[in-house]
Amino acid sequence: MDEEGREVLEYLKGHVAWEPRQPADVSSDESLAKVALLVREFHDLTAGTSLAGDQEVVCHNDLSPKNTVYQLSAGKLRPAAFIDWDLTAPGARMHDIAHVCWQYLHLGPAITDVGEAARRLRLVVDSYGLADPRDLVPTILWWQDRCWRGIETQADAGDLAMVRLRDAGAVMRVRAAHQWVSDHRGALERSVR
Predict the structure, then answer these.
(1) 54 φ, ψ (degrees, to nearest 5)
(2) DSSP-derived 3-state class of residue 136
(3) Which pLDDT tens digit goes with each residue over 172-188?
(4) CA 20 to each of CA 17, 23, 37, 106, 157: distance values in angstroms, whole numbers, following the listed order
(5) pTM
């Protein structure tokens, strides 16, 4: 905050993963583990604070490669910070971890190797240190359901951004991802037991 009470933001140099094709470093196991560690650090910093209110932690609620700044570290792109904090709110650790799994693993019909997706799901759980991952897959499904229904509802109410998302096929893609996770729920849940 500056002397006049205005919020002042700084520019963080790095790579943000907006384009469909990304350098391999962005989706590597090392980057995925680092994302989980960054989320854990953020959660631990907010646990028990007034910002978390009566909830476990403060959640970002929109963690994805598109909201991550990657910087060079030992010659490799690695996650360094998260951006786009518009949806931040008090919540449960599981909410952000489930969103990480959905978005960073790209859980959906494009995945052809369910075993590999399950292994990487376990990598997130282990890297974060999630004590009880039993609700992880149901929470991923909750996010996906909430997302497509939210887009539909807001688009029907006239929100132009949501109309554009719906018209671009977002609802269809999220519903397909939800179906894929539902279809492979057993394998995904076994990986985190």
Answers:
(1) -95, 10
(2) helix
(3) 999 999 999 999 999 99
(4) 8, 10, 24, 11, 30
(5) 0.92
